[in-house]
């Protein structure tokens, strides 16, 4: 779907969309259409007693006489003074879904100024467009026999307003962020037979053309560096693991204040501690943390963000095999700390342990944020609406929470402390990779990660196991891979790192 911005005028054909605010207040263009159609708009509004012009309410007037449009879509905006950028995005997303279901191929939303709205007209257009674009995502490359009537129909969506240049300028960076979100959604949607560690590393390589510097470590190099934890997980798979670093140097100087690290388990069978068959296919998206890291790098490089940042992803496959690591094995991590493996299904933390150490040794970041589909326990605790947040720094936790609320990707902080830390002590090694059975197991995983965070580094861990995949449509996210985390961290970067 192509988004564009054009001059303020009623389009000569196809669908025309116009705003209606609370208490059935028609915008000037809606009134103008009513006049042109001999009163068809008000007639429709009066025939629909439940249509109040509330946020995300829609009313369609089909094939009205007096104009050449196929339909008029009244778009409920609610009270102008209550509008926000993210509300507008939701409206844009729902509008797009509506148009796609209607069979329409082109639509133009004519935007009049909204007195009382805190969002200026160009930003209003930009965020409506952004919401529509985010919702338009579809992963259909493997559907070869889909019927035409089941496919989305809208190919062009225009926004008509007097400040079209400003709207376009406001939309440009948002469009780049959407590109990053779409990449993440693509990566998590790909099946594991296609998206191996090597294939995912190649996807990282494609960011080079945006100016991202890529380095890929193979098994041999990781062996020399002593990454026994990551390599332990990988050894049961015939596919070679990779560790990829992606650097974006958009800021001043050479230092790298921010590192983002992603868990990239391309398939998590559980290993010798094999998972049950039910739902195992979901574990193709156990590389979701890496997917977000890669999508974020694309977004930041795409919009030429003014900071230096590195993204690091540990890419492995966790498989049962004659050569697989076993429960009871002791692994030596790059940090020198030893780990007793009690469950080969608690593999993500092992991958991250070495990815953390490498990141800190190589780039000396002040802040390190990781994303990982780390535990089923976070799903039990928070469901699919919020990601779990763990942090060793209150300010970082606060800014992440605020960034999440700002973009509608909500996070909730969960506890860590020295008592929980004791739960991962091992009888024969420095630590074990599980905690006190099922109890507080999202926290146990976080405590484990914390042991690989160096002194003085501000660190946050987002457990995105519950939010990476969605089984139903939402305003900005069609069901499937969500891309949760890209917009959140992009906002954090804007708020905290680009000043
Ligand atoms: N990848 C899983 C966690 C997961 C579960 C992600 C459901 C998405 C949806 C992780 O590697 C895992 O298996 N964790 C175990 C840890 C346990 C063995 C300590 C878990 O949460 O059950
Ligand atoms: Mn696992
Ligand atoms: Zn996993």
Characterise this structure.
This protein has 499 residues and is α/β, with parallel strands linked by helices. The protein contains 15 helices and 20 strands. The strands form 4 sheets. Strands 8-9-11-10-14-18-15-16 form an 8-stranded mixed beta sheet, sandwiched between helices. Strands 1, 2, 3, 4, 5, 6 and 7 form a 7-stranded mixed beta sheet that branches. The protein has a 3-stranded mixed beta sheet with strand order 12-13-17. The radius of gyration is 25 Å and the shape is elongated. The mean pLDDT is 98. Bound molecules: ligand BES, manganese (II) ion and zinc ion.
User: Could you say which small molecules are bound to this protein?
Assistant: ligand BES, manganese (II) ion, zinc ion
**The biggest beta sheet, please?**
8 strands, mixed
Number of strands: 20
Q: What percentage of the residues does DSSP assign to strands (E)? A: 15-25%
Q: What value does the average pLDDT take?
A: 98
- Measured between the Cα atoms of the first and last residue, the distance is 34 Å
Helix count equals 15
Low-confidence stretches: none
Shape: elongated
Report strand order across the widest sheet: 8-9-11-10-14-18-15-16
User: C-alpha Rg, in Å?
Assistant: 25 Å
Question: Which structural class do the helices and strands define?
Answer: alpha/beta
Helix percent band: 25-40%
SSE layout and pairing:
Elements: E1 2-6, E2 15-21, E3 25-26, H1 28-36, H2 40-47, E4 58-62, E5 71-78, H3 85-102, E6 106-110, H4 121-135, E7 156-160, H5 164-189, H6 197-205, E8 213-217, H7 219-225, H8 228-234, E9 242-249, E10 258-268, H9 288-302, E11 308-318, E12 330-332, E13 338-340, H10 348-363, E14 367-372, H11 376-382, E15 387-391, H12 394-407, E16 411-413, H13 418-422, E17 431-432, H14 441-450, E18 458-463, E19 469-470, E20 480-481, H15 486-497
Parallel strand pairs: 1-7, 2-5, 2-6, 6-7, 10-11, 10-14, 13-17, 14-18, 15-16
Antiparallel strand pairs: 2-3, 4-5, 8-9, 9-11, 12-13, 15-18, 19-20
Bound molecules: ligand BES, manganese (II) ion (MN) and zinc ion.
């Amino acid at each position: 779907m192509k988004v564009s911005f054009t001059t303020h005028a009623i389009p000569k054909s196809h669908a025309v969309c116009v705003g209606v605010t609370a208490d059935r207040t028609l915008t000037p263009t809606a009134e103008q259409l009513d006049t042109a159609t001999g009163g068809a708009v008000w007639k429709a509004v009066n025939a629909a007693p439940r249509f109040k012009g509330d946020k995300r309410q829609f009313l369609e007037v089909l094939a009205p006489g007096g104009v050449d449009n196929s339909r008029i879509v009244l778009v409920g905006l609610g009270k102008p003074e209550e509008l926000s950028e993210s509300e507008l995005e939701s409206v844009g997303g729902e509008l797009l879904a509506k148009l796609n279901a209607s069979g329409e191929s082109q639509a133009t939303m004519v935007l009049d100024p909204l007195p009382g709205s805190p969002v200026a007209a160009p930003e209003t257009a930009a965020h409506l467009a952004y919401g529509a674009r985010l919702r338009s995502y579809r992963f259909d490359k493997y559907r070869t026999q889909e019927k035409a009537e089941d496919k989305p129909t809208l190919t062009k969506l225009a926004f008509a307003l007097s400040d079209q240049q400003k709207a376009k300028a406001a939309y440009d960076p948002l469009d780049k962020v959407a590109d990053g979100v779409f990449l993440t959604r693509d990566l998590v949607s790909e099946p594991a037979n296609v998206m191996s560690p090597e294939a995912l590393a190649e996807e990282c390589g494609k960011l080079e053309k945006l100016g991202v510097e890529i380095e890929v470590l193979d098994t041999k190099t990781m062996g020399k560096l002593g990454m026994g934890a990551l390599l332990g997980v990988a050894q049961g798979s015939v596919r070679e693991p990779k560790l990829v670093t992606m650097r974006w140097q958009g800021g001043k100087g050479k230092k790298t204040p921010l590192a983002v690290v992603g868990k990239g388990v391309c398939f998590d069978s559980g290993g010798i501690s094999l998972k049950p068959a039910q739902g195992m296919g979901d574990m193709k998206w156990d590389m979701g943390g890496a997917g977000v890291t890669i999508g974020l790098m694309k977004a930041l490089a795409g919009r030429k963000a003014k900071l230096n940042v590195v993204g690091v992803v540990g890419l492995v496959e966790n498989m049962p095999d004659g050569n697989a690591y076993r429960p009871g094995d002791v692994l030596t991590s790059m940090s020198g700390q030893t780990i007793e493996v009690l469950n080969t299904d608690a593999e993500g933390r092992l991958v991250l342990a070495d990815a953390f150490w490498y990141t800190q040794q190589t780039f000396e970041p002040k802040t390190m944020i990781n994303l990982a589909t780390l535990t089923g326990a976070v799903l039990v605790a928070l469901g699919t609406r919020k990601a779990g947040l763990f942090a060793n720094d209150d300010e970082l936790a606060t800014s992440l929470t605020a960034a999440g609320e700002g973009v509608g990707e909500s996070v909730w902080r969960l506890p860590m402390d020295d008592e929980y830390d004791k739960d991962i002590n091992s009888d024969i090694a420095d630590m074990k990779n599980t905690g006190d059975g099922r109890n507080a197991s999202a926290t146990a995983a976080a405590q484990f990660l914390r042991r690989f965070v160096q002194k003085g580094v501000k660190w946050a861990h987002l457990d995105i196991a519950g939010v990476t995949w969605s089984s139903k449509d939402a305003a900005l996210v069609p069901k499937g891979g969500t891309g949760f985390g890209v917009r959140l961290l992009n906002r954090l970067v804007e708020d905290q790192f680009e000043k």
